[in-house]
Amino acid sequence: MCMKDKIRSNIEKAAQVIIDSFKKGGKLIICGNGGSAADAQHIAAELVGRFKKERKALPAIALTANTSILTAIANDYGYDVVFKRQVEALGKKGDVLLAISTSGNAKSVLEAVKLANKIGVVTIALTGGKGGELAKLAKLSIIAASSDTPSIQESHMVIYHILCELIENGYAR
């Protein structure tokens, strides 16, 4: 399977995993640092609001949106667990964690994925390069195969817009 077909297949699989979770009462939890934090909030906005069509709001939470929670956890426990603590508080079996990291090696993201895997939250990685540790830990990985961070970020936006459209179309069925 060529890289393009693998990415397409994994995007379709990820969309279906998220749709299935929503239909069973689960939610999408999203995390990332820096530009990936902005992407997490963008994805949540597209799903809670709307992407292209009118539909009911979908349960998506960006773990990057609450500065009080982020700074309290970072201050009290260290930045490496800012997303892990939130997954512990909000995640339940059947939910989905979309973990975004251009390098695939962001410690705070990896810690969240490790806990999510332990508690039955399905993990999906959106990463770049060769995927890093994140691609090894997540149940499903979508990798933008570039070593250039801006190119990875641009690819991620295209990928998550496709993902949002597939979710929106699939959930409405």
Share of helical residues: 55-70%
Overall pLDDT level: 96
Low-confidence stretches: none
CATH architecture: 3-Layer(aba) Sandwich
Shape by Cα distribution = globular
Biggest sheet, spatial arrangement of strands: 2-1-3-4-5
* Quaternary structure state of the chains depicted: single chain
Task: Write up this protein.
By secondary structure, the protein is α/β, with parallel strands linked by helices. It has a single domain (3-171), classed as Rossmann fold, CATH 3.40.50.10490. The protein has seven helices and five strands. Strand 3 (96-101), helix 5 (107-119) and strand 4 (122-128) form a beta-alpha-beta unit. The chain is globular, with a radius of gyration of 15 Å. Its cofactor is Zn(2+). Keywords: Carbohydrate metabolism, Cytoplasm, Isomerase, Metal-binding, Zinc. It holds the Pfam family SIS_2. GO terms for molecular function: carbohydrate derivative binding; D-sedoheptulose 7-phosphate isomerase activity; zinc ion binding.
